[in-house]
Design goal:
The protein has helices spanning 2-27, 42-72. It is mainly alpha-helical and 77 residues long. 74% of the residues lie in helices and 0% in strands. The two termini are 23 Å apart. The chain has two helices and no strands. The chain has one domain (2-75). Keywords: Membrane, Transmembrane, Transmembrane helix. The chain crosses the membrane at residues 9-27, 47-67. This is Integral membrane protein (TIGR02327 family).
Length: 77
């Protein structure tokens, strides 16, 4: 039982880190000059970090929920 919880935790960490990497990479192409006055300001950089974390949470939660739900389908029949 504890081994499966550990595997699930490890998978969750891995998925979160991979999605964070992809989100951070994709945000770098976004033009922040259109939305903030000074994109080099520390507040703008913190905003980018918050956006990256929020998007990472949304995407990784979707992926992990989808994985869990698809694994539960075997109990249907």
């Amino acid at each position: 039982m504890f081994q499966s919880l550990g595997q699930q935790a490890l998978l969750s960490i891995f998925v979160n880190l991979m999605v964070l990497t992809i989100v951070w990479w994709s945000i770098q192409t976004f033009k922040m000059e259109l939305f903030v006055k000074d994109p080099d300001d520390p507040k703008a950089k913190v905003l980018v970090i918050i956006i990256a974390v929020a998007l990472t949470h949304l995407v990784s939660s979707f992926l992990l929920n989808y994985l869990n739900w698809s694994m539960m389908l075997r109990h249907l029949f």
